[in-house]
Design goal:
Elements (H helix, E strand, L loop, with lengths): L4 E5 L5 E2 L2 E2 L3 H10 L4 E5 L6 H10 L9 E3 H9 L3 E5 L2 H9 L3 E2 L6 E4 L7 H12 L3 E4 L5 E4 L2 E4 L1 H12 L4 E2 L6 H10 L6 E5 L5 H8 L3 E4 L18 E3 L2 H16 L5 H10 L13
Parallel strand pairs: 1-4, 1-13, 4-5, 6-7, 6-8, 8-9, 9-12, 13-14, 14-15
Antiparallel strand pairs: 2-3, 10-11
Bound molecules: magnesium ion (MG).
The site of magnesium ion has 8 residues, from loops.
Length: 287
């Protein structure tokens, strides 16, 4: 493997709640120092890259908007050109417009659906009718629900389900766990699948997205999924890292193997099967 780029998840990988995950900030800085390009992939379709960048900045993490790929941007790139009926917030609307796509309410080539807290019966009805008339049905991300103040709130998956039921058709999903967002990330970075590594905390989204796109994955145990969840998943990560100290150790190994120009898979599988590198002495300071 010649490592040319890193793909990272956002929530549960870079931060949790309003706190950065220990080591995340230093890891991004290390990637910059190594001149190793990275892209942060988020299924969140409501925020623009600039808004994500500002949010990271508020936690002391410097990450320019061009290092962020939202599921909305990926949906816009996937659609490419056309006339689109958009259900969604700023993140999706701006992404489509930046792509040069015309937003319209009739005679459209696509219906693009992202999370929309202003969703109405009329929007669902219009979307379904346009899809039944032949428009391609695109969903930015399939997340059904998310924890919110006071409990669980409906996510884009819930909106997609209502439209799918009415249109009698399932959407093409762009975000994780599907591969489109990863393919678009690789294209943006100009690298092929085996030249990248995808790092994420979620066994239901991040790891399958990487597996489906043919990108080696690291399951980082800093977020929603636990080691015990591995047994119930068909799509397994290439490596496991308990925290950023172990992730830095993996990066050392990839870079070392690269300089020896030998395949690193063997070493990594050994690590994976053991995968108990707790307390590995490591020279990079955690934050
Ligand atoms: Mg995550």
């Amino acid at each position: 493997m010649q490592l040319k780029a890193i793909l990272l998840d956002l929530d549960g990988t870079i931060y949790r709640g309003s706190e950065p995950i220990p080591g995340a900030k230093a890891f991004l800085r290390r990637l910059d120092q190594l001149a190793l390009p990275y892209l942060i992939l988020t299924n969140n379709s409501t925020r623009t890259p600039a808004q994500v960048s500002d949010h990271l900045q508020s936690m002391g993490i410097v990450c320019p908007p061009d290092r962020i790929l939202t599921s909305s941007q990926a949906a816009a790139a996937f659609i490419g050109q056309g006339r689109v009926y958009c259900i969604g917030e700023d993140g999706l609307q701006q992404a489509l417009q930046k792509q040069g796509i015309e937003l319209a309410e009739s005679e459209v080539s696509h219906v693009a659906v992202g999370m929309d807290r202003g969703i109405t019966y009329a929007k669902i009805e219009r979307a379904a009718r346009l899809i039944r008339a032949g428009a391609l049905f695109i969903g930015s991300n399939p997340d059904r629900c998310f924890p919110n103040e006071g409990g669980i709130s409906p996510g884009n998956g819930a909106i997609l389900a209502a439209i799918a039921a009415t249109a009698d058709q399932q959407p093409t999903i762009i975000g994780k766990p599907e591969r489109a967002i990863v393919d678009i990330a690789l294209a943006r970075l100009g690298v092929s699948a085996h030249e990248a590594v995808l790092i994420g905390d979620n066994l239901e989204t991040d790891i399958p997205a990487g597996v489906r796109a043919g990108v080696p994955t690291v399951f980082l145990l800093t977020g929603v999924s636990s080691r015990a969840d591995l047994t119930s998943r068909a799509e397994q990560p290439t490596w496991i890292a308990e925290n950023y100290a172990e992730l830095n150790h993996l990066l050392d190994l990839w870079l070392a193997k690269e300089s020896q120009s030998s395949p690193c898979r063997i070493t990594m599988h050994a690590l994976y099967s053991g995968s108990q590198g707790h307390g590995t002495p490591y020279p990079y300071a955690l934050e």
